Amino acid sequence: MNTNTARAPRWVGALACCLLGLGCSSIPPGEVxxxxxxxxxxxxxxxxxAVASIEFELADDEKPKEYQPQEVIxxxxxxxxxxxxxxxxxxxxxxxAAKGEDYVGQMNDAWDNQDDLLLQIKLADFRTNFDGHNGxxxxxxVNWLLWMxxxxxxxxxxxxxxxxxxxxxxxxxxxxxLHESVIxxxxxxxxxxxDRGWHFFGFITPFNGPDNWRQIAGNLLPAARxxxxxxxxxxxxxxxxxxxxxxxxxxxxxxxxxxIVGVSYYQDSVRFPALPYAASDARTLAKTLSDPETGNGLAxxxxxxxxxxxxxxxxLSATLDEIAGRMRPDxxxxxxxxxxxxxxxDGQASILLNQAEGAEPVTLAELGALLAPVAGxxxxxxxxxxxxxxxxxxxxxxxxxxxxxxxxxAEALGGYALLSTSPKSTLMTSEHLGSSxxxxxxxxxxxxxxxxxxxxxxxxxxxxxxxxEKAVAESAYFGQPQEPYSExxxxxxxxxxxxxAPGGATDEGATDAGAAQTDGGAQGPDEGDAPDDDxxxxxxxxx
Length: 543
Known about the structure:
By secondary structure, this protein is of the alpha/beta class. The chain folds into two domains: 25-250, ABC-type transport auxiliary lipoprotein component (Rossmann fold, 3-Layer(aba) Sandwich), CATH 3.40.50; 254-520, Rossmann fold, CATH 3.40.50.1460. Helix content is 36%, strand content 22%. The protein is built from 16 helices and 19 strands. It has helices at 3-20, 75-88, 103-112, 137-146, 148-151, 193-196, 210-244, 247-252, 278-290, 313-326, 364-371, 404-413, 437-449, 460-477, 507-520, 533-538, and strands at 48-51, 55-58, 94-97, 117-133, 157-171, 177-191, 256-262, 303-307, 332-338, 341-343, 349-355, 358-363, 377-383, 416-419, 429-430, 435-436, 457-459, 485-488, 495-497. The radius of gyration is 34 Å and the shape is elongated.
């Protein structure tokens, strides 16, 4: 009998034993997002969603492994995958990946695209873990003794990948967070030598370095991505959809836009001498509305500024056209002007904008007509005079009855008008305040001083009452009465959030400011035509 022939069955038997001892790799696969998640889909909401870049944060005990998740994870692919899962939830008809390198850039892109929501996801506490040997480890020792090569293919090591997906949905219009949640994700798999990276004696105990951990994370990530996507889609459909139908959440999505116009220096400086503080009053108000730390909560992109040479009729009209394209019935708009006013030969009050030849009049009727097509609640605030008092050019035309200008403006725009002075009262500016008296208290009121019911909101009526009360009291002290007034009404209150750390003057600060005027006096009707040295140094920057 041939010796080789006799040995053959032995080798065949030994090889069969080895094969029987082989454990198969068990790494969970990924999943292609379905067209629709199982279950009954609700009626889609008419909202557009932008998905921000995915952020990653390694767990503390993961950092010594000396790899970064960005080396394993294609963030662009993850974002596109999650966007597809959100689409599968059938809650929103339009879901896309936002452009931009960071949050600010992506939020601005969402704003430019007129998206409604920005979905942000951070994979926190990201870690891979060796969970130990499974039941194939002992049989695999036998494999190694018979023939080491098959031992490398036995999946006897268990690994897991886990992280906490921190999810937030933010309103693009209001920048407020509407929904926050944490989705825990964990996937596990059984690995052989080559699944996690080969080592000669790795079947006995893993000698994992950065390359091995990168490979382990990469193998488990598709399943983790699918688990997160399915959970995210289900959460948006089952939880967030219901939240969006609540009145308080819809209110928190309410957009507030502001158009701030200020002119201190007109092109014709002979006919229109420089106005102290008009442009700086406009800038101060814009900052009060949008300062990230001490403002009223408006995003800076929501505040449109036309200062100095930018304050032209053409730019005003173009800006209002853009604003009209963004406004919805639930939104609100504030328009502010500081500069010269005058009266036309037919008696119509007008504000004066800049132009190459000097100044361009825009009557209040024209301003109202520009604003009339804009949806939502509208408040117009004018810090100017029309009849020879401060911030006005005397026309010689007799003024109308008290309140007529404001009433005409409110009716034309279909909203609420707050004017800094009435025809027979003054308009004061103060060197010590560095502002007009009206705008100083306007900013103070927005800073929280006008929140009389202390509900954390300042509405248009509270603001108007506060500014009028302060301006009347302090101007009377100097014998130069200034009487702001308001006209019109709104279907719902125009509200702004009180800053977390209130800026501007408080009631006490306003009183101190009034007292400070006793030293230098207040600029009355004939004293507001030339800037002081400090204002003169600052204001040319507007052009």
